[in-house]
Amino acid sequence: MAGGKKNYQNTILDIAEALKLSPATISRALNNHPYVKEQTRTDVMEMATKLGYRRNHMASGLRSNKTRTIGLIIPRVSMFFHAEVITTIQNDLHKHGYNLIICQSNDSVNMEQELTETLYASRVDALIAACTLQTVDFSHFDKFVDHGTPVIFYDRVPVGDYKATFIKGSDFQGAYLATNHLIAAGCKRIAHVSGPLTSNLYQDRAAGFLKAMEEHHLSVNPEWVFHQELTHENARIAMQEMFEKDIVPDGIFADNDTTAIAAIEFAKEKGIGVPDALKITGYSNDPRTAIITPSITSIEQFPNLVGTRIVEVLMELLTEEAEGPVYKTEPVIIPVELISRMSTGVNK
Amino acid sequence: MAGGKKNYQNTILDIAEALKLSPATISRALNNHPYVKEQTRTDVMEMATKLGYRRNHMASGLRSNKTRTIGLIIPRVSMFFHAEVITTIQNDLHKHGYNLIICQSNDSVNMEQELTETLYASRVDALIAACTLQTVDFSHFDKFVDHGTPVIFYDRVPVGDYKATFIKGSDFQGAYLATNHLIAAGCKRIAHVSGPLTSNLYQDRAAGFLKAMEEHHLSVNPEWVFHQELTHENARIAMQEMFEKDIVPDGIFADNDTTAIAAIEFAKEKGIGVPDALKITGYSNDPRTAIITPSITSIEQFPNLVGTRIVEVLMELLTEEAEGPVYKTEPVIIPVELISRMSTGVNK
DNA sequence: CTAATTTATGAAAACGTTTTCAGCTAACTA
DNA sequence: TAGTTAGCTGAAAACGTTTTCATAAATTAG
Fold first, then answer.
1. Please, is A114 exposed, middle or buried when counting C-beta atoms within 10 Å of its C-beta (0-12, 13-18, 19+)?
2. In order of start, what are the domains of chain B with their CATH numbers?
3. Whose C1' is closest to the CA of B36: which nucleotide?
4. What mean pLDDT do residues A198-215 have?
5. Residue A300 in this model has a pLDDT that exceeds 50
6. Distance between CA atoms of residues B217 and A279, nearest Å
7. At what angle do helices A12-19 and A38-51 cross, to 10 degrees?
8. CB neighbours (10 Å) of residue A61?
C-alpha cells in the first residue's frame, strides 16, 4: 500500500548487534561452521528468523566467488521431454538454494556457443547441457572445464573422452525393447527411422535395433534404415521412399514421436492399416502419442528421474573437495520402459 | 585441458592500470556516464574487449542494489502457451542483459505464495507472473509493490485495482470469434465449457460468448454452460451430462484445447459425427489440435507477441524515473485470431 | 581579465558478506 | 604443574563495483 520504496532491512550486522556478537560469528553460525557453540547457533537462527533475515546473495557471492546459480542449455523448453526435465531440475535445485538460468539453443550450434559465453560470463557455479544434434565439436565447453566448473551433459552427450559428467537414458535398451516388441507383434520387415549418427543417441539405438534383429535372425534392409534429422518432413520423405517400392516394411521403429506421428499420418492418407498392415513405435512417450488415433506405442524415458539424478550428481560435485575431480568418470544411465499402445496392436 | 583452476581475470582495476586511469573513470565509461571524454570512453571500451573484461554482477549488484535478474512465476512450463511465452521473454531479456529465474507454481496457490517469498528474497528487479486460476487474493504480491519493484501480470491477472501492469489476450474477442464461427457454420444450440469465473479470463470469454449469441438471437441454455476447472475429466463429465438428455448441443465452445480434445474423444466413442452432428472449437491453438482427427478449430493467442510486449513494457518501467509509478495504468491487450480446422467443417 | 560554470578525473567510502589471523578460555597430556 | 591442544569468538581485510565529494582544467559570461 505504501508509496515510498522500502529497503531490504536486516543484515548480518543487525543480528550481530541484537545478540551482542560479531558479524563473523553470525556468518559462521548461518553457514554451519563447526567452531560455533550450539547455544550460539540456535540463538542466531532464532534471531535470524525473528528479524526475517535473508542472505544477500550478491554480497556472499562477491566474497566467496560463488553465484549459487546453475546454467542450463537445452534445445528448446517446449519439447515435452525437456520441459519435464527442467521442471524437476528447477524444483530440486531450489531445495538446495540454487537458482537456474535456462537458455535455449534453438537447436543451433552457433547459439549454443554464444550461450556458453554468456553463462561463463555470468559465472555460473555449474553448467548442465543437452547439446544440439549437430554439436560434434564440444570445445566451447572447455572454458568451464579449464576453470574447474562442473559440466553435466545429459541426453545428447559428447562421444569419447571429455572431462565432464554424462547422464543419459539407456538408448541401447530402449531400441532393443522397441524392436523386440515389434518382432513379438509379428513384424518381419522392420524399418528404422533414426537420427544423425553424429549423436551418441542414435549410435546406441542403432546398436540396440541391430542386436534385436540379429537375435531373431531377421535381416536388416539398408534401404529401410535412415539417419537424418528427425523432423516431420524428413519422416514423410522416408515413408514415401519406402512405400513406393514393391516390398514394403510391416514395422517401423521411429526414433522420436514426431516421426511416429508423421508415419501414422502417412499411413492414414495411403490407406495403410495401422496396426494391421503396419506397426509403429515412437520414442519419448510424448503426450501426443496417447491422443492420436491410433495411439502410439513409445518408450518412456522418465524425465523426472533424469532431472533428479542430474541434481543429485551436481550436488555431489559441488560439495566435493575443492581439488578433487569435478566430474564422474562413469556415465549415469537412466532406465527406460516400453509403453504399449494401439499402433502395435497391443493394449488399448 | 589444464588441470588447475583458473581465476576469472581482468577486473575494472586491470583496465584502469593498463590505461593509467582510475577505476572510477572506467566504471563511468562502461556505464555511459555523461562526464567522460569521448576519447577516454573509446579507449576504455577497446581495452575492455582486449582484456576480455566481463562485469562482475555480484559486485555491481551489491553496490547498486540491482540484481539484473527478473523473476517469473507460471503454472507450468510444459503448457504450450507458456513455453512459447517464456522462450520469447528469455531471449528478449537476454538482449537487455537481464537474467530470468523461472519458477513453476504447479497451479497451486500455496506454491505461488512461497515462490513470491523466494523471489523477493532473491531481490529480483522485477516480477512477471501468470497466476493460478485459483488465485483470487493477490496480497502475496504486495511486498514487491510496496518495495517499488515492478510487477507485470499476464494471461491471468487480478481483477479490480492493483498497482501493477497487466498484459493479456483479448479474451472477449476470442470468445466472440469462436462463437460467431460456430454460428456461421450452422450451429443453433451452442454449449460453453468454460473455466472458473474467479478468473478474469473466463469472465471475459463468457461475455464474448453471450454477445455473439445475443447478436444472432440465439438462446443460451444454462444447462450447457459450465464454469469449472478445465481438465480432461471435467470435460468428460460435462459432455456426459449434456448428451444423456433428449436435446443435445450441436456446437461446443471449449475454453481450452484439452477440453476440446476430450470432447472429440467423447464424440468418437459415442458415435457422434464431428463436424456433421457436432462442431467443436478449442482455445490456445496448442499443436495437438492440428494432429488429432478431426483437427480442431482454435484461437491463436500469439504467445511470442505476448512475450515481446512484456519485455518492452518491463524495460520502460525499469528505466523510468526512480520515483515515477512502476506500473502502467492501462492494460496492454494482445489480439487473437481464429484458426479454422476440421472440427467445425471448414478448411482442412 | 576575472569570476562563474561546465567538463573531466581521482580518492575514498560504501555495499554485506566470508575468511584469515590472532587471542582467549577450558580441557587435555605427560 | 607446565605445556599442548581443542573450542569458540572478534578484528579486520577482502571481494569488484558504484558513487559522493573534491579538485583541476577548460570553457563561458560579464
1. middle
2. 12-55 (1.10.260.40), 68-169+303-334 (3.40.50.2300), 171-301+338-344 (3.40.50.2300)
3. C8
4. 95
5. yes
6. 51
7. 120
8. 22
Computed over every residue of chain A, the mean pLDDT equals 91
Sign of CA dihedral B201, B202, B205, B210: negative
Which B residues between 44 and 73 have a beta carbon under 7 A from any strand C atom?
Answer: 59, 62-63
Q: By CA distance, what is B290's nearest residue in A?
A: A292
- Three-class DSSP category at A163: coil
pLDDT value at residue B122: 87
Helix (H, G, I), strand (E, B) or coil at B37: coil
Question: Are A192 and A222 in contact, with CB atoms under 8 Å apart?
Answer: no
Q: Where are the alpha helices (DSSP H) in chain A?
A: 12-19, 23-30, 38-51, 57-64, 80-95, 109-121, 142-147, 171-184, 200-215, 232-243, 257-270, 288-291, 303-319
Provide the pLDDT for residue A322: 52
Residues of B in contact with A58 (CB under 8 A): 57-59, 61-62, 67, 123
pLDDT tens-place string over residues B86-105: 989 988 998 888 989 888 89
Residue B49 amino acid letter: T
CB contact under 8 A, B77 and A56: no
Output the nine-digit C-alpha cell for A240: 514415401
CA distance B250 to chain A (A): 23
Give dist(CA B88, CA A104) in Å, integer.
Answer: 10
Is residue B8 predicted with pLDDT exceeding 70? no
CA–CA dist A251, A183 (Å, integer): 8
* Residue A190: strand pairing partners: A251
Does the structure show a pLDDT above 60 at B7? Answer: no
